[in-house]
Amino acid sequence: MTALTYASLCGLEQRLLDHFYRQQGSRMRSAAGGALWVARAGAIVAGMSLSPVAHGHWLTGLLVDPQWRGRGIAGQLIEASLATAAGPVWLFCHPELLPFYQRLGFGPAHDLPEALSMRLARYQRSKNLVALGRDQSPPMSSPGNNTSV
Asked: For the N-acetyltransferase domain, which residue ranges apply (predicted)?
């Protein structure tokens, strides 16, 4: 079995994630200004975006190649990306995906930032979506950077 790696993309690599989405027949695109994350087994097998919003992050574009589904890749990719993020994380999903996200610690989001609230209302005109959120602790600090006395 091929070893999987989880890593963020930088700069020009954004096109790699967009190419992955197109290969999968998806209309998704990587979020401009967001941190782009991928799972690789040689080639990209999953991807997502984590964009700063208000005092947290918005998770979008999570997609796993159908041949790689059912192996926990989406959950591991989310956990790898969120290990670097502080503050709450929000996402919108179809109701049938609730159990998946609940296993990862997401629950109903009642107080969305205004920008996401407006976007959700716009999306809900044509799609049945629910807003979920997860509180994040600050990323682990490195030894020697502790400011407590």
From this structure: 1-123
